[in-house]
Specification:
globular, 22% strand, Diphtheria Toxin, domain 1, alpha+beta, five-stranded mixed β-sheet
């Protein structure tokens, strides 16, 4: 049996998925340049390589914040996003922070790793295709059809055992209020895998990624 083709929302009969809800106080993680003062960046990038941002002609436009449900998810989505090159410079690690933030209110997400894809009449191709017009169209369709949903939950493309999130801009009042919940950060180089005690460099090595000293010295 052949796998179903990729289709746009207007090309098939789909039914709205039941969202997965995270309670207030749930933790999420984000890796970004250390120069930023907080992790709450809802980027608008209709022509870039972000899978779940709406396309340029979608209305309304909205920003999307990418994060992980674990530190590992945030790290692989950021550092292993590009297929191929198995080398990362030490300077790239030194200039990044790992943020932890908790939700101030419940957060409802469409889980694209679960039965939601079947309700959208799709399979896992939607999560890995390089034809980004399709996932962008589905992001916009779900954003409009489910006003009570705050984003998407999906397997991290470089390592599907981890879960990532794409939070719609309308979730800002649930995650972007530091006075009401936890927000903290550490240098990415200081992160240690809590299960194995391995540092970030050894942890990346397990994925076949070598960290080389590109002239910035040891950490």
């Amino acid at each position: 049996m052949s796998r179903p083709p990729l289709r746009f929302p207007w090309e098939c009969h789909w039914t709205a998925p039941v969202p997965t809800c995270y309670p207030a106080g749930s933790l999420f993680y984000r890796v970004q340049d250390a120069e930023f003062d907080d992790p709450f960046h809802f980027g608008r990038d209709p022509e870039g390589d972000h899978r779940w941002n709406p396309s340029q002609d979608a209305r309304p436009q909205y920003g999307v914040l990418y994060a992980g449900t674990t530190p590992e998810a945030a790290i692989v989505e950021t550092l292993l996003h590009d297929e191929g090159g198995g080398v990362i410079g030490l300077s790239e690690l030194k200039q990044r922070s790992l943020w932890t933030f908790s939700t101030g209110k419940p957060l409802c997400l469409v889980d694209l790793a679960g039965p939601a894809l079947k309700r959208l009449r799709h399979d896992g191709k939607l999560l890995v295709t390089d034809q980004l017009d399709y996932p962008r169209a589905w992001s916009h369709a779900l954003h409009e059809a489910l006003p009570g949903v705050h984003g998407l939950l999906f397997p991290a493309r470089p390592a599907p055992e981890y879960r990532s999130v794409a939070l719609f801009e309308r979730s800002a009042d649930r995650v972007g209020c530091p006075s009401s919940h936890e927000v903290s950060r550490i240098r990415l180089l200081d992160w240690v895998d809590p299960r194995t005690g391995r540092n970030i460099i050894d942890w990346l090595w397990d994925f076949g990624v070598t960290v080389h000293d590109d002239g910035v010295g040891l950490w």
